[in-house]
Amino acid sequence: MEYVIVFQSQHPKIVNSTKGEEKPNLDAISFDAGTCAVVTTFHINESHMADSRGCKVPSLDPFHPYVMQHVNHAKPLRCKGRLFTEYENSDFRLLDDVNEEHQVASIFAEPIHRNSDLNVKLGEKKILNLTNRVTRINGADFLKVTVRFKNGKEQTDYHASISEILDVAQRKETHSAPLNIMILAMDRTSAAHFQRMLPKTYALLRDELDSIMFKSYSIVGENTTPALSALMTGKSLDENCEFREARKGFKNAGFVDEWPFIFKDLKDLGIATMWSEDQPRIGAFHLRLKGFKDQPSDHYGRTLWLEWEGLCKNSQTQYELQLKYLKSFMESYPGKRKFGFLFLSDLCHRSASLLSAGDDGFVAFFKSLKNESLLNETMFITMSDHGPRYMEIRKSSQGKLEHRLPFLSLTFPPWFKRKYPEHIAAMVKNTRIISSPFDLYATMKHLLAFPDKRFVDTAGIGKSLFEPLPEGRTCTDAGIPDNYCPCLRWQPIDISHPHVHEAVKVALSHINKLLVTHPMTDKLCHQLELKTIFEAYQKMPSDEADMFLSEQGNNTCSYQIKFQTTPGDGLFEGLLKMNTTAGEMKVYNEIDRVNMYGDQPKCIVNHVPSMRPYCLCK
């Protein structure tokens, strides 16, 4: 059965201090923990229980009128100026159409090398011979190019192209992976938002490349870091931090190098690796974490993006240079298996509509990969970390679901599909069963010895998508916390109910306690008070089997609440669970900020970034 949910408007703000009304008094209503706000009892048909278990993900209409009234499309991104040079296969050369009319006086390039995750160093200047028109530059993926003109002006350009590393090329391969693994990831892009913003790219993936599109792929946390932790290590963020603390502002925090990144396994197997994530300031392992001491992959795009800021650099677009770098990696190391990960942040993160400016560029990229046979030995994953977090539609039920249903497609060469029809059929079936980044991790490990599974941790959360997932799979099975599960049933409840007031009280207390735990936030950040309660929901049994389990002794009521605080007008969502026996209300997982905080936490942003959603500087 397929459920279709479009959206549900917010409940009215029945308490609003901005209109001069008295702020809600959370202590004014007596708190009775004996039963849930909504009593869940009905007749159980035990004969239907076995077939009714499992997560049922709603189907969303990406183009519903309510959504489309909040959607704009950007024009294709065109950067001004022109490029005078190119850099491929270590050859730095003058473009063929550059002549005396351009009044170029001199050109030189400086290789960009990693110094640390925070800064780079420039190598020796390499002068481009304008007569010979080419200069060889070895050992550098990235160049900073200075073009000087006869009128005294100059411009700066950048190049990104794989310069093969001899040690990597000579690594002995000890695996039987039939395909390379390439990942193109986009920040905050739901499956529905991908269809709205990139219709040409979506059509090409679906129709021309026959990609497998997932309809029930979900998130394991609010933002990018939990998603990439699961994808790249097979472990949750909490598990990794428990193993080796790496969160800025936390005691004994160190680098993330000791985490079990897949790059380590790939290197041991002789596979070449690449990782490139633009917007290094807010990188997945750098914004709230300490980053890497040593370069994690053989080729590391962060080195370039520390030098480049902005969507354009003269005639070059940032996202197209990213794509060019990935393509260069796919062309490199002939005969050797490769793993590449590209994360597009700036194009997707600045605004909800800007992504549409890249539609033509993505189409050109995928067509070039197909036409040049670069997909013939590759499993190509196109994906996102999560859906939009701050769009206007985030206030609706559709927006909440979109945040929890990021885009995912997998593209395989035709010969692979013919050779392994059962595995492909299983994956197609799995597109409608709840899955997560943990499963993608297991799928990649499976491919390393495909069809053998000797590299897959069978005791781990993730399950290979090449094999059938259980029909009755739940969010818990997939490693998805309840507050991010897209297939729970939520019953709206009156925001004046005592349980709602108690939940908000506990959530607000939780935030304020977090702010006083660190000396800097205790000193520099406001304590928050309640301004408005927007809405509240109670988790309901999603099927008769859930109800059966509930009636066998489950004494927990789960509530999802949304409220606004003052000062600062922060908007927060959280899941709280009440034990009806003990009469205790507790925060489950974390309280999420669901509107933009801008520069509100500027006084602590570099020192205690984990507190950014909560801190309003005094």
Automatic annotation (TrEMBL):
<dbReference type="GO" id="GO:0005615">
    <property type="term" value="C:extracellular space"/>
</dbReference>
<protein>
    <submittedName>
        <fullName>Uncharacterized protein</fullName>
    </submittedName>
</protein>
<dbReference type="Pfam" id="PF02995">
    <property type="entry name" value="DUF229"/>
</dbReference>
<dbReference type="InterPro" id="IPR004245">
    <property type="entry name" value="DUF229"/>
</dbReference>
<dbReference type="InterPro" id="IPR017850">
    <property type="entry name" value="Alkaline_phosphatase_core_sf"/>
</dbReference>
